[in-house]
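Hello K.,

You asked for the raw outputs rather than the summary table, so here they are, unedited. I folded two proteins back to back in the same session to keep the settings identical. This is the first:
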Amino acid sequence: MQTIKIHDKLFHQYITEDEIQKRIKEIVTELSAKFHDKNPVFVVVLRGAFMFASDILKKFNYPCEIEFVKLTSYTGMQSTGKINMILPLKEEIVKNRDIIIIEDIVDSGLTMDFFINYVKGLHPNSVSLISFLYKPDNLKKDVKIDIIGFTIPDLFVVGYGLDFDGEGRNLSAVYQLA
């Protein structure tokens, strides 16, 4: 088992790069079947979802557009419960379009509940949510996730876009706090 150190904490490998890439292929197959003729707008939630989104979008071989939003609710290892939208979407990008939100993790559901309602207020044709990770044990708001990469228990994880105080996003696998 591979172990890494970030700041003063140890993390053990939890999801391998091969497992992630296998799941990406399955997700892209599902997205391609549903959206190949729709020219969807992929909305990538920064910063955590950038690696997941990049791997999906490199394999989605149909017309699409890509937009970015930046939402924050975490400080260190704790969610603050308060959602800040630092980089919002413009209505003209969303209106009457099929929107596919790519998120790194649905934990409490508070951020995605807030953001999905915001997007729906911009009058899209449809809204779908893809989350790399899902922690059902922590859910405080019922959020419909259309495609889940991996369902995990209540673990603190880093890697593949997820960070611990700014570090670890560049790792190609996912690691859990030891």
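The second followed immediately with the same parameters:
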Amino acid sequence: MDYHHIRNRVFEPLRHRYSRDDSILYALSVGLGTDPLDERQLRFVYERDQLAFPTMAVVLGYPGFWAKEPDTGIDWVRLVHAEQRLWIHEPTPAEGEVVGRTR
């Protein structure tokens, strides 16, 4: 693996539009809504006052498994995920667009 090649790899920003239905499906997929009396969970799985679960932005902004591409020189079978960040500045709306910037 060529560290400098990987470090300088350019990723174009990834724009992804998502709907209210996408937000509900994501929330259900991570286990929200299992307790129909928990109002904190209902904000993510019911249309009234709906929000998107914040970590959904990570999935929507993901550029795909680029480390498996031949030009990386990475032995992807031995790859260990070391770091990932998500800055949340405000509640995530139930529908909208995210821009993923990978570096």
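The first helix runs from residue 3 to 7.

Happy to rerun anything if the numbers look odd on your end.

Regards,
P.
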